[in-house]
Amino acid sequence: MTTLSDSTRDKLMRVSVATISTALFKRGLRNQTIQDVQPVARKGRNMVGPAYTLRYIPAREDLNKLEVFRNPEHPQRACVESCPPGAVLVMDSRKNPRAASAGSILVTRLMVRGVAGVVTDGGFRDSPEIGGLAIPAYHNRPSAPTNLTLHQALDINVPIGCGDVAVWPGDIMVGDDEAVIVIPAELADEIAEEAVEMTAYEDFVTERVLAGESIIGLYPATQPRNLEEFAAWRAKHGR
Questions:
Q1: What CATH number should be reported for the domain holding residue 106?
Q2: Which among 8, 80, 81, 90 would be 20 to 30 A from 55, CA to CA?
Q3: Is 126:106 a contact under the CB 8 Å cutoff?
Q4: Are residue 113 and residue 196 in the same domain, yes or no?
Q5: Is the pLDDT confidence value at 221 over 90?
Q6: CA 31 to CA 164: how far, in whole Å?
């Protein structure tokens, strides 16, 4: 699994998905925000961690009976028990929320094991209970039926698609109270650094706009005096 430094993790915990998306756009990466996925419940803090993946395919009835859960090597169960602490479990449910990707017991197990978060482009059952857990969880919408009715868990920790975005094992996942984004692992350090810088300037701009200043020349900064005033603002605020 990708090693994520404490410094980079801390920086990514303090920036928005929107800011990260702009930093990635500057590098030509336009399709990194997972589509049609939102928090089960807002946590007021970010989810950050390397991706650990699970791929579902359409269920075939003769291979997907309820008894399959008795097998400890069933891919869904095995994935819950093998997802590393600090990682984010990302599930490819083919953007189909008509059956659950997981429920509260499995998500609780992930939380107790120290997993940083869980994401699916399908749905969760027991979503009120999942929303009450400390672990960040993201899905398309609530879905009561068991996953076996439509989904068959197949592959663990392989490249997947989630919400129209390619996710490779070890990519860095960041979720906030709005959305989830995928950062290629090799870019994580520089994206984190730039996003922190961008966030500081955006906070400075917001303060100035609230005070009545026009955005022209300020956002983006095209006047040298704005950069000078920003430097003074950063020194004053320890940013």
A1: 3.50.30.40
A2: 8
A3: no
A4: no
A5: no
A6: 8
